[in-house]
Amino acid sequence: MQTPKKIAIVGSGLVGSLLGIYLKKRGHTVHVYDRSPDIRKINFSGRSINLVLSNRGIKTLQDIGLEKEVLAIGIPVDRRAIHVGQDTVNEQLYGKNGEVIYSISRGLLNKKMVDLAEKAGVEFFFEEKVWDVDLTTATISIGETERGEWITKDYDLTFGADGAFSRIRHRMQRQSMFNYSQEFLNIGYKELHIPANADGTHKINKNSLHIWPRGNFMLMALANLDGSFTCTLFMPHDGENSFASLKTTEQLVAFFAKNFPDTKEVIPDLVEDFFKNPTSYLVTMKCFPWTFSDKVALIGDASHAIVPFYGHGMNSGFEDITVLEEMMEKYGDDWANLLNDYENSRKPNADAIAELSYRNFTEMSAKTADAKFLLQKKIEKWFSDKHPDKWMPLYSRVTFSLQPYSEALAIGDFQNKIMEEVMQMENIEEKWNSEEVENKIIDLLK
Amino acid sequence: MQTPKKIAIVGSGLVGSLLGIYLKKRGHTVHVYDRSPDIRKINFSGRSINLVLSNRGIKTLQDIGLEKEVLAIGIPVDRRAIHVGQDTVNEQLYGKNGEVIYSISRGLLNKKMVDLAEKAGVEFFFEEKVWDVDLTTATISIGETERGEWITKDYDLTFGADGAFSRIRHRMQRQSMFNYSQEFLNIGYKELHIPANADGTHKINKNSLHIWPRGNFMLMALANLDGSFTCTLFMPHDGENSFASLKTTEQLVAFFAKNFPDTKEVIPDLVEDFFKNPTSYLVTMKCFPWTFSDKVALIGDASHAIVPFYGHGMNSGFEDITVLEEMMEKYGDDWANLLNDYENSRKPNADAIAELSYRNFTEMSAKTADAKFLLQKKIEKWFSDKHPDKWMPLYSRVTFSLQPYSEALAIGDFQNKIMEEVMQMENIEEKWNSEEVENKIIDLLK
Questions:
Q1: Angle at Cα A147 formed by Cα A144 and Cα A151, nearest 5°?
Q2: Using a CB-CB distance cutoff of 8 angstroms, which residues of chain A are in contact with residue B151?
Q3: Which part of the chain is the FAD-binding domain (chains A, B) (predicted)?
Q4: How far apart are CA A95 and CA A398, in angstroms?
């Protein structure tokens, strides 16, 4: 049991809302602040990538009895559909036992989470801008503008769940011994849209994550409940094949006709979407420490913002809550040690998923179209099917297991070294499923 | 020639003052702002490491005719004196041709630079706190406190020379695509003091950089003009042999008696200095870009803050000015391209000196007491003496040449690989200066 505290959560996003439910369930008073209006009352679109919910995130929902409500608004996705040419689509199942991830629209899920949190007794304060926090007292400062008048609100504990550009972290960053990095990718992204058919059905297979890999750029599509798809174009900000190079309707239409010919039928509003929707940025943010005594703690994107290419932004944020919950169970009212153990145990895993996510852009945009890479994946799958006790592919480890990310990364690197040797075997293309290859892998695993 | 501009420099430190002189000489109006009082009117001591001025910094002074005035307040240092035990001091000359670096007190030099800048016509505004800059107009905002009232001042161009915790950079950091990192070392430092003898002479050799290397901590001493030495104790913040472990006079005295017995006579006020002077932090800060169109630019520590173990903080900052001067010569009034070329050409070298400085803590604190390492240095020196055209040691490259830091680092890494092989030769201790070793190095250099 924990003594009830008065807790502020800054940020009513996915992690903030779900954290609120967990804290409320333990008897705390929970106030969630957000600088934006109530997401349930606004039109949310135009600058998002669809979310992918997988086992780690599902576990956090399950532990508090919410997985059914959330999965009801998701669409199961069991494979990658790789659009390599005009009419050629290669499919790769994600798991061998029918494992799925869920495509969920960010707006829809966020509304649902706020609803669920409110039902659980969490109080929300929208359009309240938190600019600062006193690290020694957890008191937050709220005001219309950064330089205008502020009022203060006292709490026992304040969580910064306010995303990659967190104000709570901004305050922590001004201490000595606070390590911090933000690194932008030269890849930006833009939301596009595949509408539903007239009868509400999906225009392409809704149970696939669609990828059009084109080297240093790619298009992606994930299904929505209403029959539409949210598409995301990932591309360099400048240089050849970049957002900067597509300035006119003619350039855009020619670019799509050349690179994504099979999207012509399914993205009718390409030109309007492209020039209306903003080009967004991708950043990897790392920092440490995440907490200050028993007063302030960062969680989710505020403590570790990652690029979206592994589909683990939300899942890793939700897993933060699972770790925090374990610590609440273990430490009870000893919040200083609770938060200390939380940040120390979680940090290596946050770093690992950042690294995995960063690497996965190259895998998705370039390697999925590479014959050698596809053969490697085929060998891994074949060996894993024969020896499930000896080999779980990295993607499965990260997405379908609950193994700490840092272990998954380390084992993935070890497996990759083995596969590098295997791929160098003579005539590997012919003998890929031979006893020789099988024995070689078994040998290298020793 | 350049059309005269109205230029603000934020920060009246070494780089800000010298940059002011350069800009003034080109006919610009130059206003230097500093949040602190005029350094010439205050007592400056207690939290500094003595500066080391070497060839890169001297070149920047020389190009504008100031090297003589500055060198007059420096003390030439031609060797390391390594205090390995009670009475054992090993000496290593820095260069083979009498090359020297100069030990200069930071306070003294800063006063001198402000004097010289004022004489050149640079205007100084002390105790004026610049909190913000408008990146599109170069207008700066000044006020008593961060949250209080501000006034604005218009300029054509604003330089941030305001150090590792630059406010000008703080504004730039809030843009998209601004990469930034700050990483604190777990090593802190504290200033201690060796006073002059009664007759004004130095108690130990003033022409040596004194090091007491003790593994993960060390003491260092650099001479001052007045016969004293500024000592710096570098040590982990916590753990064994740390600042946290020295809480009482007894602990401190016992620690020095055990680890630095030969300092007992020369640091009479150890206890008072230690508990009075603050423990300071060491940070490596990297960022990019450094400039915003033709309006705002970072320079010195504001763009690349490094740890002090190579003695290149000031030298690299001064070299920034040399690069900027080259660009002013090349681009004239085309400030946008001028600043763009400045940041692009300078950034790899800033990264390289950051890396070299970081690595040098281990070299100074641990390796200088390691027999194997000393033998390696001896072989390098011997080979370099025989083949000056084939081998310049890394330290000389960095400190006595003007070769770009990034090239020095790359060649240093290459040389180190060669020396690793050489050190693994059988009986290298006996045959270190044999023809066999000489030929081996020549061979590996091919």
A1: 55
A2: none
A3: 7-355
A4: 12
